[in-house]
Structures are given as structure tokens and as C-alpha cells.
């Protein structure tokens, strides 16, 4: 494609002509843009540094994205470059316009062969990144796009926990996850292996592609968690025995015995009709760069000992948060009351294990609910109830959340 000589005065960094808004969310906005020198269409994700809660988060995000620009795989959305100003980070990436994979499966489940084809492409992408120390840890429908040729593209690999996803169809889209894709070991809060978490999510995705519905599903959030924790799911009767056996290895609740990427690649069910993609591989030469990947986007968001599940649940709001703790509901409720009284807030008892704190002016408030997940674990849910978001964010991040996590 010939180089375009004329550069518009308002071009971003003198390089990109920014077009329409494609999507937005809590951390970022995504725009369609054109490289004025080459004419190439790109998507630019604009991350507002002020929206990143931890000061160290900005430099870590920039570092990880920079490393990820070196990834080059046919089934992963390519990151071209990272640019930054004092207030914003600009992530320039491949523009994929073929639509979302799950928009197609919503019209009807796929055959075993077609499900296998997309699963093969997904595993190829996941395995490629795992070999470089990068783990997605938040694989879900919004991350799976299709290019013009109908091939899978995993979007924002390793960044999905930091910023919202963009749908390739150009529709406005905010971050929306589901607990149905969360691996059971994440719920136990005993530590987990990023590679094994990704394999679990790939198993959920394969099930949905072929069966047409989720293996773990319930309108009651806690019932859903318990199904995942126990691994309670049933394959449809019409599904082949080979597929059922393969799914049982993928959705093994014990991460130690769950099938690995290497084992998947050798599995007869997986190997059927498999064509390994050809691409130019450049291994990391700098050991320091590889080691720096150990702290990935998921960890950066969940930097405290309380695991933030907000991005994995049914919706994400700027006034709500959920995380898992190893503590009794009674002790947590008493802690919330104690903090409220110390801050001279009105303390009102909610239903069962719930407490509402309210400022005297009525503009500031927080509601905390505690749900028992297992005998040892609970889910803590907090929501802003007043209109003063600034005071809520300050109170929650500096006083309430640290106190609960350290309980």
C-alpha cells in the first residue's frame, strides 16, 4: 500500500487519524483510527491513567503491553505499539471486523467438527502465549472475535482484566463477564496456576460452542459458584463419548490432574484435522523481559490479598466490588460496624450478613453484604449507596477494603 504523504494537523502523535468511538468502559475508550502514513485501519484503546487505582499500575501496564507488542500469532489480535502522554496510554492494535464468535453460536450450536476447529485455533493462541509466560486468565466470549476469513482472534491477550473489551462489530460495549468461566481454584483463594486457569476457561468455551449452553449456570450467583466448586455439570446425551471424555479432562476441578496444553496437543480428539498454523517465531532473548511477565494484568488489578472478582461477574460498575476472603461472615460484619463507628457513620443492619453505613448528610454511603461460599470462604460485596463517589472511593480504598482484607 503506498505511503500517504499528507498528515492531518490533528493526527495523534502525527501518525493516526482518529475516527468514531467503537467502545467504552471503566478504564478506557476504543476508537477506530487510520495510520495516515500507510492507510492501515487500526483500533486505538485510550486508557486514562487517573482511572488506574494504584500508582504503580500505570508503569506495569505500559511495560507488559510493550512486551506483548512482540507477540505475533495468526489467532491473536496484534498489538502494534504503545504510546503515552502524561495523562493517557494509547494502545494501538489490529482492527478486527469479522464479528464476535459467540454471536454466531447464539444462533445455534456448532457441529463437533466446527467446534473442534475453533477450539484448535484457541489452544494454538493460548499455548503460544503460555510458552512466553503470558496468561490470559479471563478468557470469555467477549475476547473471541472472527476475522474476514472466519478464523478466530483472541483479543487483548493478558489485558482483559485491565481494560474493557471491544466488540468487532463496532457496537458500544462495556465490560461484562460471568462467573461461569471462573476456575474453581480461583474461588478457593489458595493460589493458582495461570496456565491451568486458562485451560479451564477453554473447556467452558468448547462446551458452549458444541452444546449451545453453559455447563455451569444458575440465576443464583452463590449456587453457580458452588456448582463450579464441585464441578457439577452434565453433557447432552447426543454428544459423542470421545468429546465427553475430553471435556471431563478440561473441566477437572483438580488443577493438578487437569489436562495441560501439551497433553491437549497430543490428544486424538484434538488432533483430528488439525493444521498447525505457520508463523514467524521470535523467542524472547532477554531473560529480564520474560521474568517481568510474571506479574500480569490479572495480578495487577488483584494486587491485594483479597481477590477482586468484579471483572468476572455479571456486570462491572464504578460503585461496586466483589472479592473472596477466608474468614467468617460474623467477624467481617463486626469489622464493618467497627470501622463505621470509628468514622462516625450511621450503622444500619442489613439482611442476614449485611451492613449499611451512611454519612450524616446522606450523600455518602456504603452497603456491604457477605455470602458464604464454602465452610472456609466468603464472598464480600460492596456497593456505593450515596451520590458522593469521590468520598466513597477514598473511604473504600484507604480504610474499609484494606481493613477487611487484613482481617
TrEMBL record:
SMART domains listed in its UniProt record: S_TKc (SM00220)
CDD domains: CIPK_C
EC number: 2.7.11.1
Keywords for this protein: ATP-binding, Kinase, Manganese, Nucleotide-binding, Serine/threonine-protein kinase, Transferase
Catalytic activity as recorded in UniProt: L-seryl-[protein] + ATP = O-phospho-L-seryl-[protein] + ADP + H(+); L-threonyl-[protein] + ATP = O-phospho-L-threonyl-[protein] + ADP + H(+)
Molecular function in Gene Ontology: ATP binding; protein serine/threonine kinase activity
GO terms of biological process kind: signal transduction
Segments forming domain NAF: 290-314
Domain Protein kinase: 16-270
Positions bound to ATP: 45
Taxonomic superkingdom: Eukaryota
Pfam families per the UniProt record, alphabetical: NAF, Pkinase
InterPro entries referenced in this protein's UniProt entry, alphabetically: Kinase-like_dom_sf, NAF/FISL_domain, NAF_dom, Prot_kinase_dom, Protein_kinase_ATP_BS, Ser/Thr_kinase_AS
Matching PROSITE patterns: NAF, PROTEIN_KINASE_ATP, PROTEIN_KINASE_DOM, PROTEIN_KINASE_ST
Enzyme class, broadest EC rank: transferase
Cofactor: Mn(2+)
Family: Belongs to the protein kinase superfamily. CAMK Ser/Thr protein kinase family. SNF1 subfamily.
Record's protein name: non-specific serine/threonine protein kinase
The species this protein was found in: Hibiscus trionum (Flower of an hour)
